[in-house]
Specification:
Blueprint (H helix, E strand, L loop, with lengths): L1 H12 L18 H27 L1
């Protein structure tokens, strides 16, 4: 989760503008709400990847 946040901040600080087509509110990463939403989505993605990996290990 922190990797995603750090990557987005680093890209934003270097002048890269990201546009999220399905969630335009995330395209402006300068408010607390957008940062919170991105953190939640990153957490959910990380949790889903761990779940899928554990299911694949079980067979």
């Amino acid at each position: 989760m922190l990797e995603v946040m750090n990557l987005v901040l680093k890209l934003s600080n270097n002048g890269v503008k990201m546009i999220f087509l399905r969630q335009l509110e995330l395209s402006t990463f300068n408010n607390a709400c957008a940062k919170l939403l991105l953190a939640i989505y990153a957490y959910l993605d990380e949790t889903e990847r761990k779940f899928i990996a554990s299911e694949q290990r079980r067979g």
